[in-house]
Amino acid sequence: MFAVASPKRLLAFAAVVACAAMTPSASQAACCYFSAKNADILQPAQKVFITWNPDEKIETFTVQPKFEGNALDFGMVIPTPSQPKLSEMPRDFFKHLAIYSIMKQRQFPNSELLPRIYNRRETLGEFARDANKASRENEDAPAKKSTVVVLEAGVVGSLDYKIIEATRADDLFKWLSDNKYHYSGDAGTLNFYVQKKWLFTVMKIDTAQMKRNKDGTFDGEVTPTRFRFATEKMIYPLKITQISVREKTEALFYVQAPFKCDLEGDNSYQYTWVPMLQAASGCMPSGIPGKGGDWLAAFKGGIPPLMQRAQLLNFSFIAGQRPAPNAKGHIPTTMEWARKLSKEDVSILTGKAPYSQTVPNVDEGFSRADLKDPQRAEAIYKVIRARLAKSQKEHPLGYLVRHAPAEDVKNLQQLAGHLSESWFITKFRKIFCRDEMNDDLSIVPARYNGAEDNSEYEELFPVSPP
Question: Sign of dihedral through CA atoms 273, 461, 24, 14?
């Protein structure tokens, strides 16, 4: 995905890579932007949702970049290994995914009326908070005949698109020029995809549909579009984004597959996941939820070499903190949510299952005014203690709670049909430096020497980063 520009309308084509919200600092204000004469395009945020069916060899990915700049209009060019089928997705699709994957926290019933000496769960809660605090401290020749073929043209949502085939990079450059586009990117990067016989989808975007700032620049997100195509393996076109990056770009992935997924090689999130599991096992007496302990046991023989490699890469885990860059500026990938979807998980989308557990109010029906009479107060205390005991018996580890506005929870129904029961969704974040983008991104099963990582992560640990 690369940048092109029209001399008349100052078009810029933004390279597409899935990114999470990132605000460039003053020292790197040019990060993720394109210059077309006096027109700038900035990509402060992009996200992607990938679904991979290994039996059918079909991949779909949905992208929604956020753009800022002063171009009159612009667009995206997205390479794929085969001709894609395009379809429009709900505009707030990624907002719904974010709401769906909000992390849960354990909470216990707490009485505001019961004398503190009897409030055992509150005391345990204070102990847990203290434990958490302690843990956190712890080369082209002229072509005679153009090889460019427009395979398809149409509209998806509000976006015009063309799917283009070319067997020579210089032919593609000429086609862009003949169609009033000037490409100012790196020819070698474009040729990388031409040589692989990939196709290019060009999508035009009208910034008149976006919000304008006081200085005349625009700010907004385009309607997410889904690409469905055949491919031998799950892959994401990362290299072409390199031409739009001065220093680094941040990517947020949601990957759905029959198994848990990871990035390949040194991009793996195991450099942060395994040490976080180890740290959590030392401060969670009831055990690590989500089969984290099972993964540590299965991965036991691989932990020493993993940590040795992490040391060579200068990747370190510090409880309660986001990973810091090493001397090269490289930052390890972090897994932010992972879950094999159950029937109940999918039922949340239709409102047939609750979005969150509810902590009972053990003081319900009573007030401090009721405690003025000592005899009545003792009777009330007895009821509250019985309620606490019942809660302790039914939920000895507390209640898994998360919060979102009721309307946002209701709108999760727009995810119905896109999330599959018994399939894994793995959410992970990676900040790519420019020198880490020399090839496309391979997404692989989360395995090691035959051991499969089935661990889930939907509950915050005492050592989890913010």
Answer: positive
**373 and 270 in a common domain:** no
DSSP-assigned beta bridge partners for residue 233: none
Rg (CA), the chain: 26
Beta bridge partners of 40: 35
pLDDT, one tens digit per residue, over 342-361 is 999 999 999 999 999 999 99
Contacts of residue 165, defined as CB under 8 A and 6 or more positions apart, other chains included, come to 147, 148, 149, 151, 199, 200
Cβ neighbours of residue 146 under 8 Å, at least 6 residues apart? Answer: 171, 174, 175
Length of the chain (residues): 466
Q: Which domain holds residue 182?
A: 1-101+147-283+320-340+419-466
Residue type at 307 in one-letter notation: M
Tokens of 181: 């586009």
DSSP string, 184-195: -S-HHHHHHHHH
* pLDDT tens-place string over residues 167-220: 988 888 788 767 765 555 556 777 899 999 999 998 876 666 666 777 766 666
375, 278: one domain: no
230, 82 in Cβ contact below 8 A?
Answer: yes
Amino acid at residue number 115: P
437 vs 433: CA distance, rounded Å = 7
User: What whole-number distance in Å separates Cα of residue 248 and Cα of residue 42?
Assistant: 13
Residue range 7-15: mean pLDDT, rounded: 36
For residue 63, the cross-strand partners are: 48, 225
Instruction: Say yes or no: 463 and 382 in one domain.
Output: no
pTM: 0.82
Q: Quick one: which of 246, 244, 208, 201 has its CA closest to 226? A: 201
Do the Cβ atoms of 321 and 135 come closer than 8 Å? no
Q: Burial letters for 275-293: b for 16+ Cβ neighbours within 10 Å, e otherwise?
A: bbbbbbbebbeeebbbbbb
pLDDT for residue 170: 84
- Report the number of distinct structural domains present in the chain: 2
CB atoms within 10 A of CB 345: 17
* 391 vs 121: CA distance, rounded Å: 10
